[in-house]
Amino acid sequence: MKPLICNLKMEHSLQDILKYKKELENCVGSYSLIVCPPFCYLPIMHSKYYKIGAQDVSCYGNGSYTGKVSAQALKSLDVYGVLIGHSEIEDSFESKLKKLRRVVSEGMQAYVLISDTKEEHDYQYSYVKLMNKIRAYLSRVLPKDYKKITFVYEPSWLIGGNETLLVDEIVNLFYQLKKELQFEYKYDFPLFYGGGISSTNIQELYDNDVIDGLLLGNFCKRAKNLVKFLQKDNDSTQFDTSIHN
Question: CA dist 48 to 32, 45, 153, 227, Å?
Answer without folding.
Answer: 11, 10, 28, 16
